[in-house]
Amino acid sequence: MVNLTIDNRPVTVEDGATILDAARQLNIRIPTLCYLDLHELKMVNKVASCRICSVEVAGRHNLAPACATPVAEGMEVTTNSRRVLFTRRRLLELILSNHPFNCLICAKSTDCELQALAWEFGINTKRYHGEETSFPIDKTSGALKRDPDKCIMCRRCETMCNEVQTVGALTAYGRGFNVIVGPAEMKPFVDSNCTYCGQCVSVCPTAALTGHGYIQETWNAIFDPTKTVVVQVAPAIRATIGEEFGIAPGTPVTGKLVAGLRRLGFDAVFDTTFGADLTIVEEANEIIQRLTTGERLPILTSCCPSWINFIEYQFPNLKYMPSTCKSPQQMTGTIAKTYYAQKIGVKPEDIVVVAVMPCIAKKYEARRPEHETNGVRDVDYSITTRELAKMLKEGGIDLRFMDEEEFDNPLGESTGAGVIFGATGGVLEAALRTVYEKVTGKELTNVDFTAVRGLTDVREAVIDLGGRQLRVAAGSGLGNARKILENVEKGTSQYDVIEIMACPGGCINGGGQPYTRDRLDMIQLRTQALYSIDARSAIRKSHENPSVIKLYEEFLGEPGGHKAHELLHTEY
Fold first, then answer.
1. Is 0.85 topped by the overall pTM?
2. In a 3-state reduction of DSSP, which class is residue 119?
3. The domain 98-211: what is its CATH number?
4. Does 252 score more than 80 pLDDT?
5. In this structure, which CATH number among 2.60.40.10, 3.40.50.1780, 3.90.1150.10, 3.40.718.10 belongs to the domain 216-568?
């Protein structure tokens, strides 16, 4: 342990702690900008590039960055001297001197940490004028938008992309005044190995990295009298969007959300959880087929498009392993433009499907050439939780005061198994509930496969399928995905079924979810919300969803059959 004083207050902390850690123990606030504590991922970004956290240390000539300066025995720290406050203000003014002053039309206005600090410091004019960097905006991917002029070189995105996700799509580029963070050689994102997981967006303090927006396109579709516009809502959205309206984190708002979407003007409000149940029926059939033949094992769930991008770029020799099933977003879109279109007598090309997703990669997935049926896109626009919140607010809709309403059928009925898709391990658990009953022919009385739940690196379990030992694993975060796949390649890990979610914690922590700095607490609260919905659900197994059963009887035939394979499966 180390003893020191901060602002004449004694404190004892563990050796290796920083001044910032010690100050927080005393509830002394030191402003930060580039610093980011990803404690749930055991990763800290403390490059000390912004120096906004500068403090005085007795006996030290220069000011010290609190985020990166280790404590020492007997250290005396001052956090609010004239010199400290003057320096912080000048540093912030210098950062702002090379930053666009277009906050009113900025995608991250009111969510921007730089803007919040400027307000806190009372800075409302640009004091220093001179040359400013200028780079083109990159929105080539249709998923991510990169505005280098708003980059402040905090390097948070680099830490997330390279250290946590191990994708390696971002790096510092250039020298001196023109240094910037972006894909190697400043290539556009569409030509890089980016997976569009959006975790860089979730940690960017400004709007240098945001999702590619489709709000205006969605409004245009809603107000087009020639189009039937349907919306589908991912499982994770119901546990997160309430935060944008001051509702306590971890509070499910399913019924209120449905009501709000109807008020916006959508012609039908569907549940992507229906698509999740449909995915499980098809995927369980595929799992059983592969287990029977022993070929192409382990089978990897394919609901996460960022994870699919990752295996395409990083492990192309393993592309035979992912399930051929489309994701719930794409399945719901396909069924809306075929089965539902027939029921209401509307041509598929006259139906616009809008998907509300927690994920930025879903935008890219909707644009992939594989995802169309008879020349018609399965999903037209994929918008994030944040985008939908803006649309609701623009429409004068406050979810706090909405009455509960039900989803529209036939694509609105779902089970608890489909809901837990939003949490890491949820897809695997949902699949196990169905695979167990299909293989053993016995009713599963306890449907909770808790061994695959949680936020630890990789969860492993062995499930007894009537004498057949099924070896499964679940992991979230692409860094963990790399560990799993490398072990599979080396033969050091033997699995039958693997679930991977690109975002740490799963979709509840997706790149399109409400911004938060209390990541671990928020992930846990959001996860608990989904499992609470599952626990209260009357039906908790995907293959028992009455609307899914009816869909096969009326339209698809049998799981894995010709029509089901034509509409619900794809290749990568």
1. yes
2. helix
3. 3.30.70.20
4. yes
5. 3.40.50.1780
